[in-house]
Amino acid sequence: MNTTGVNLSWYLVLYCITLIMAAETAAKPPLRSIMYFTGQHPIAPPIDQLGQVTHVAIAFMSPGAFNDPARSEWPFFTTVNQVRAQFRRGTKVMVAIGGWGDTHGFSTAALTEKARKTFAKSVAKMVEATGADGVDVDWEYPGGNGEDYKKVPNSAKAWEIDAYPLLLDELRAALGPEKVISAAVPGLRRDMLAFTHETIPKIMRSLNFLNVMTYDMMNRRDTVTKHHTGVKLSLEAVDAYIANGVPPQNVNLGFAFYTKYFKTDHEACAKAASAVGCPTLLLEDPQTGADLGRGGGFSWHDGIPGNVAKSFSRALSQGTYDYREGGYFYLDTEEDIWWTFDTPEAIKEKFPLIVEKKGLGGVFAWGLGEDAPAFQHLAALNEGLVEYSSGRKDEL
């Protein structure tokens, strides 16, 4: 018997298996984990709890700061070096620009080619001066449906839809290929005005990844109860971006380290077939869009507002998980308050149901310090990352 030929065959088989494993490993890089580090809660846990964190986005610098070509100073609540020292070596530290209501500076920057170039060059100067590894663009609602949507109609912002990717192009040109550029984008389909099948390819040519805000998906514009960071709505958001051309590995799933609550209509909810979908009181002014004060939220770091303290205590002890739509909730029929937030267990549910199912490239959370001092939700996120990463390796 010629054993040499048999041995060579086995060597070839093993060599091919090694090549396949290497290729699959390259195709499945470690998951990203981005933490927003906010001026409201600039707190980080001990560094041994941050092993899964790959990026930090310091929030926020105002976009208006970058429309002055003569500007050379960048005042902030912290520095990139101070933040970098609080995380593991190799963690990318980015500066987040913008935020929910701070959009005027973006509109000014995007209006003309000259303005776009001025903005991008100023951002590049800031990145060089601070030593940041890149920027996160938090122009969350280009094209309309932002905080001022009742005062400024979407028709007046329609031009932003085409201007948004042009602004990103200038940012990439100014920052170069090595710096990280990401964008925070809407989680509700109704708000994805600038993120269409036509615009997504133009947007993604400049970005490393998208942070899909799969939270606040119940807000004061709604009239019935739903999960503000639920699985069903999160899947709808992720599916919309993927269908419009975003590769799944460039999508990060958002997690909220805070609670939300809304006042409900007692009589209507008593007649409703389910706690999910029962009518709320009117939550925003129909003329101005202003908050009517019938809802709210607070982070795990914050003190519990006294007017909802007893109700929140019941939500923690009596709440339940909705396996149909995916989300922890409690309908307080004593005080007519709908509670919606993620428990650590609810966070871990999202890894097999969303991250693994859709093959996403990462996760992010708003925000790290909001989970202090216990950091239980961060721990659950880390656990999900470790388990999912282990599962990816087991597949090879």
UniProtKB/TrEMBL annotation:
GO molecular function, one term: endochitinase activity
GO BP term, pick one: chitin catabolic process
Group of enzyme by EC: hydrolase
Top-rank taxon, per record: Eukaryota
A Pfam family per the record: Glyco_hydro_18
InterPro entries reported for this sequence: Chitinase_II/V-like_cat, GH, Glyco_hydro18_cat, Glycosyl_Hydrlase_18
Gene Ontology cellular component terms for the protein in this record: extracellular region
EC number in record: 3.2.1.14
Keyword Signal: yes
Name of the protein: chitinase
Source organism of the structure: Lasiosphaeris hirsuta
